[in-house]
Amino acid sequence: MANPKKHHTASRRDKRRAHWKRLTLPGFSKCLQCGTLHIPHRVCPGCGFYNGQLVVAIEAKKGKGDEGSSR
Predict the structure, then answer these.
(1) What is the model's pLDDT at position 67?
(2) Host domain of residue 50
(3) How many domains does the chain have?
(4) pTM (global) more than 0.85
(5) 3-class DSSP state for residue 65?
(6) Beta carbons of 36 and 48 less than 8 angstroms apart
(7) Considering the domain boundaries, does residue 37 fall inside one?
(8) With pLDDT > 70 as the criterion, what percentage of the chain qualifies?
């Protein structure tokens, strides 16, 4: 079993551990149909299009005044 020959200082150890939690945002691309931002090579969550073709039918979102207006 290999063992370290020299003792590493706490600052050296902590510098190595400081970067494990760093997150990067994925690159976004603009949808050609509706213009919303989405992750590349995925179906657009706004309109349901992928590569110029409708893949998923997205229902229209209800507005603020649409609730309870069944008079």
Answers:
(1) 59
(2) 26-61
(3) 1
(4) no
(5) helix
(6) no
(7) yes
(8) 85
- Whether 69 maps to a domain, the answer reads no
Residue among 25, 63, 60, 29 nearest 43 (CA): 29
Q: What's the pLDDT band for 43 if we cut at 50, 70, 90?
A: very high
C-beta of residue 38 within 8 angstroms of C-beta of residue 46: yes
Residue 1 lies in a domain: no
Residue 3 within a domain:
no
Q: 69 φ, ψ to 5°?
A: -105, 40
Buried b (16+ CB within 10 A) or exposed e, 11-48: eeeeeeeeeeeeeeeeeeeebeeeeeebeeeebbeebb
Phi, psi of 65 (to 5 degrees): -90, 0
